[in-house]
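Page 42, continued from yesterday. The earlier attempt failed because a stray header line got pasted into the input along with the sequence. Redoing it now with the clean sequence only.
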Amino acid sequence: MLKTLLATALVTTTSFSALALELKGHLTQGGLVTGKLENVKSVSLDGKTLKLSDSGDFVFGFGRDAKAKHALTWVDTNGKTHTQDLMITKRDYKIDKITGVAKKYVSPPKEVSARISREAQAIRKARAVNSDLQYFLDPVLKPAQGRISGVYGSQRYFNGEPRRPHFGLDIANKTGSPVYAPISGTVVFADPDLYYSGGTLIIDHGHGVTSTYIHLSKLDVKVGDTISQGDKVAEIGATGRVTGPHLDWRFNWEGERLDPALLMQDKLANKK
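This time it went through. C-alpha cells are written below.
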C-alpha cells in the first residue's frame, strides 16, 4: 500500500497524476474535486464509497469546516488496495451583519415550525439524488449577471443575532433578471414559495452533485425537465428571507456544501 501526501493552494485549480490517479479541482474547504482511475473496482473517500462511472470518473467535495487530512482509497481489478492521502487547506470566512430583516424570519413564529421542517425535509430528499449523470465533469459558468453581494462561508448576523453560516454565492440584480443554467442537468425540485428561501430550484448534475437557486421570483422549469447549459431556468427575485432582490446560488455534493465561486468561470451561461 503506497501513500503519497498531496496539497494545493487555496484558489488554485490543480491537476495531477500519480499511480494512474488523476484529480482536478480544489483541495480546500468548500472545494469540489473530480477524479479518474482506470482498471479499478471501487473508490472511497474516508471510508465512504464513491459512485464510479464505467469510464472510471468520480467526484467528491469538502464542506465549509472539513478537516485537513483525508484518504482516497481504491481497489484495482487485481484486488490490490491503494491509498492516497489528501491534505486540504483551511479558509478564513467573512462576517456579515444584516439589519432590517423582518422579525418573523429571524425568529419565526411557532405556527410555521411544521412548515419549515417539512420544507427542509423535501430539500434534503431532492439533494440525496445520486444519478448516473456526468455533467459534473463540465465547466461551470456564471448563472446570472449582477453584483456579488454575499460569499460562501460567511457568518451572518440578522438584526444582531448570529445565524448559521451562509453556504451560497449571492448575485444581486433587479427582480426579473434572468437566471441561466450554469451546467446541464435534470430538475429534481421546483417550488415557488418556501418559507425561508422563497422560489427555489434544484438541478441534479450526477453522482450526488446538485446546484440550488434561491429567492426566485419566477421558475421557468418543472421537476423532471432536462436542462442544457445556458437555458433560462428562472428569474431573480426577493422571495423568502431577504433584504433585496438577488440570486442565492449553491452547490452540494451529497451532504457537503460547496463554494460555487471556486467552480464558476467568469462567463455568463446564456446561449447568445
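Notes: The chain is about 10% helix and 45% strand.
Reminder to self: strip header lines before submitting.
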